[in-house]
């Protein structure tokens, strides 16, 4: 019985086309645009952590300042009795209650401000990814959406919550627009000062890297034209 012939070998797949000079230039321009659009952005985790610590300090200091009148009442009670044990008990109870109030205020302040900061910068980063650019409209939109969200979760009737959403969205955009413009201007100024403060050796190295990249693109283009 004759042996069956082996199946014909499949032709090798053609190699992928090499990137042209225009594609390389477009990739370099896209990289420069992404670097330019990242000016003024803030890391979400760092901003949230800073917001939590700021809320802890604000809530604790607020509760501590609010307990001044209560401390005065305790001092009056201590002055009206001559029993040392009673005075010690009043002082101990006052210190325990004050510690609990300050700790509770710190935790509530940290959670509230941390949630606000996380929501604001999360929405801002989402807008940056979707729009592909970081400008003042991202900051204003994030502020409006965050204020509207927190106005919606406030206690009250539906009409009251709708009013809070409307007022919060308008106030959030109105407050964040000028603040965002100032932030971006300061970030651009800082980037310009950093670029101007570079030493001649750094500039020479950057120019050498750019020249090497340009030479590689030219060689690639000439090899494709042959």
What would your notes on this structure say?
The protein has 226 residues and is an all-alpha fold. Among the domains are: 43-131; 133-199, no CATH class. It is built from 7 helices and no strands. The longest helix has 48 residues, at 84-131. Mean pLDDT is 75; it is low at 21-37.
Q: What's the SSE blueprint?
A:
Elements: H1 21-37, H2 44-66, H3 68-79, H4 84-131, H5 136-152, H6 158-196, H7 200-225
Helix pairs in contact: 2-4, 3-4, 4-5, 5-6
Quick recap of the structure?
81% of the residues lie in helices and 0% in strands. It has 226 residues and is mainly alpha-helical.
Q: Can you give keywords for this protein?
A:
single chain; Complex I assembly factor TIMMDC1, mitochondrial; 226 residues; transmembrane helix; mainly alpha; 0% strand; 7 helices; elongated; 81% helix; membrane
SSE order in H/E notation?
HHHHHHH
Number of helices: 7
Estimate what percentage of residues fall within beta strands: under 5%
Low-confidence stretches: 21-37
Give a quick account of the main beta sheet: strands, pairing sense, barrel closure. Answer: none
Mean pLDDT: 75
**Considering DSSP H and I runs of 4 or more, what fraction of the residues is helical?**
over 70%
Rg (CA only)? 32 Å
Q: Which structural category do the helix and sheet elements fall into?
A: mainly alpha
**Termini separation (Å)?**
54 Å
Number of beta strands: 0
Q: What spatial form do the alpha-carbon principal axes imply?
A: elongated
Family: Belongs to the Tim17/Tim22/Tim23 family.
Membrane topology: Multi-pass membrane protein
Subcellular location: Membrane
Organism: Eragrostis curvula (weeping love grass)
């Amino acid at each position: 019985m004759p042996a069956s012939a082996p199946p014909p070998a499949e032709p090798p797949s053609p190699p992928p086309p090499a990137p042209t000079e225009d594609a390389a230039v477009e990739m370099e321009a896209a990289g420069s645009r992404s670097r330019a659009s990242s000016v003024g952005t803030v890391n979400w985790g760092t901003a949230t952590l800073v917001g939590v610590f700021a809320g802890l300090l604000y809530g604790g200091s607020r509760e501590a300042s609010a307990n001044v009148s209560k401390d005065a009442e305790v001092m009056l009670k201590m002055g009206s009795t001559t029993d040392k044990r009673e005075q010690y008990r009043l002082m101990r109870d006052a210190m325990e209650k004050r510690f609990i109030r300050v700790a509770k205020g710190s935790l509530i302040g940290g959670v509230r401000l941390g949630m606000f900061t996380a929501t604001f910068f999360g929405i801002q980063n989402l807008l940056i990814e979707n729009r592909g650019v970081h400008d003042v409209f991202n900051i204003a939109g994030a502020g409006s959406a965050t204020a509207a969200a927190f106005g919606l979760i406030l206690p009250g009737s539906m009409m009251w919550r709708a009013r809070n959403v409307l007022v919060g969205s308008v106030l959030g955009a109105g407050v964040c627009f000028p603040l965002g413009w100032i932030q971006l201007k300061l970030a651009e100024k800082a980037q310009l000062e950093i670029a101007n403060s570079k030493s001649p050796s750094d500039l020479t190295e950057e120019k050498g890297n750019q020249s090497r990249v340009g030479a590689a693109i030219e060689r690639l283009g000439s090899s494709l034209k042959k």
